[in-house]
Amino acid sequence: MTDVLNNSNDATTNHGRQNRGSNLLGVGQYNERLILQLIRRAGSLPKAEIARTTKLSAQTVSVIINRLLRAKLLRKEPPQREKGKVGQPAVPIALNPTGAYSIGVKIGRRSLEVLVIDFVGRAIERIGHRYNYPDPDRVFPIIEQDIATVTKKLSATQRERIVGIGVAAPYGLGGWQQEFGAPKRVMARWHKIDIHQRVAAGQDLPVWFSNDATAAAIAELEFGNTASFHHFLYVFVGTFVGGGVVLNGTLHTGPFDNAGAIGSMPVPAHYANDKNAEDHARGGVAPVQLIRCASLYLLEDRLRHQRLDPGHVIDAISRGDDDELPRTALTLFEDWLRQAAAAIACAITGAISVLDFEGIVIDGALPANLVARLTDAVDEALNRMNLEGLTHPQLRAGTIGNDARVLGGAILPFYANFAPDRDVLLNVGADTIR
Q1: What is the pLDDT of residue 419?
Q2: DSSP-assigned states of every residue in 219-269
Q3: Residue among 419, 289, 397 at smallest CA distance from 346
Q4: Mean pLDDT: which of 172-176, 217-221, 419-423, 427-431 is highest?
Q5: What is the DSSP letter of 301?
Q6: For domain 28-96, is the CATH number 3.40.50.300?
Q7: Which one of 147, 236, 237, 364 has the fewest beta carbons within 10 angstroms of its own beta carbon?
Q8: CATH number for region 225-399
Q9: pLDDT tens figures, 214-268
């Protein structure tokens, strides 16, 4: 499939809704993408349900489905008969996992990952590396080598169906070097590097680029537990905290592709203290950024200062093996949890004062049960905020975790090739089956 047609009859309304197709000649490409995205969101759908949801004629839907079946992008599932109904059973149509493949690359401040996924988002091959800080002289050769390695592991047919490479990395990767102890001279080189161009220079495949937290929000939107939210703020707690904004079921990136940069949100300086912020309120102090209050590097640095291995401590707490840890480790974790939760709750209060989010999704580079604990702690802290004039949003723990950023990167080529709009995600809206 080639680029999306820009057609005024694509049924996009003034409210940004894009869940209706068009029977007009010349927009079949848009309708193909619309149906692919609809099926991706629903998992599988019979032709009649696709026609009902998109408002396309049954004949148009049938023609498009047959074309996509021949292209091996879709497949038929076993027939299903609804209870109490007579006649021919419905045949659900689903994405064909082997219809397309994509490569995702995540460049982080502490780690690098390369991932191959199939058309339904399942991991096929992956390679990961850890480092203290990202040195561009090392990062880009490793990316090129890893992409070659994972590609060679695929069959010839799989390689032919790779649609591209998606790269997820923080904007301003060279910034905040003091916060995690990186050499200023090395990190400053990132300011002069176009990551997209640098990766693309060594590849024959097309390359797309996104902010890493935005990519994580894409992954949560597509594969997470957000079906009941049409408007939500996504918060990802990694080495640094970041986020994304979803409005009307569509990722909102903003005019500078930086919407949801929650890590830069100012919060009162007392939230940067080690103890519960409520016990350390101080007036007249300049605000600090959320990054300095709710990022994992804070916990890691405090644990290392006590000569404790952060990975071991986090894994032990996640397993409930508190007895194998010194009391200092548990205290540092609990202090960080309270501090991060209070600061995130403050940031959420500011966010919902501007946009009326119905939900907040919190995920991070932590085990799932610790993400759940953090989410509960944020909810409790939010209950202590003054929300007069505001509506308390529903908080929900993310379901993807540390893989969210690289998975989101890998999804980028699928959107560029198969989504109704290359630039934003399809808004399925309330009328679409879930």
Answers
A1: 79
A2: HHHHHSS-TT-SSEEEEEESSSEEEEEEETTEEE-TTTT-TT-GGG-EE-G
A3: 289
A4: 217-221
A5: H
A6: no
A7: 147
A8: 3.30.420.40
A9: 999 999 988 887 777 889 999 999 999 999 999 988 888 888 888 999 999 999 9
DSSP state at residue 92: -
Largest alpha-carbon pair distance within the chain? 74
Q: Give me the amino acid identity at 58.
A: A
Nearest to 404 by CA among 168, 196, 146, 88: 168
pLDDT tens per residue across span 110-121: 899 999 999 999
Tokens at 389, concatenated: 């004039």
**92 touches 44 (CB < 8 A):** yes
Q: What is the DSSP string of 139-208?
A: HHHHHHHHHHHHHHTS-HHHHHTEEEEEEEE-TTTTS-GGGGT--HHHHHGGGG--HHHHHHTT-SS-EE
Residue 103 tokens read as 């490569």
Burial class (CB in 10 A: 0-12, 13-18, 19+), 84: exposed
- The CATH 3.30.420.40 domain(s) of the chain lie at 101-218+406-417, 225-399
Span of 78-82, 185-189, 256-260, 262-266 with lowest mean pLDDT: 78-82
Which among 253, 351, 241 is positioned nearest to 290, based on CA atoms?
Answer: 241
Asked whether the predicted pLDDT for residue 176 surpasses 80, the reply is: no
Dig out the tokens for 423 from the structure.
């630039």
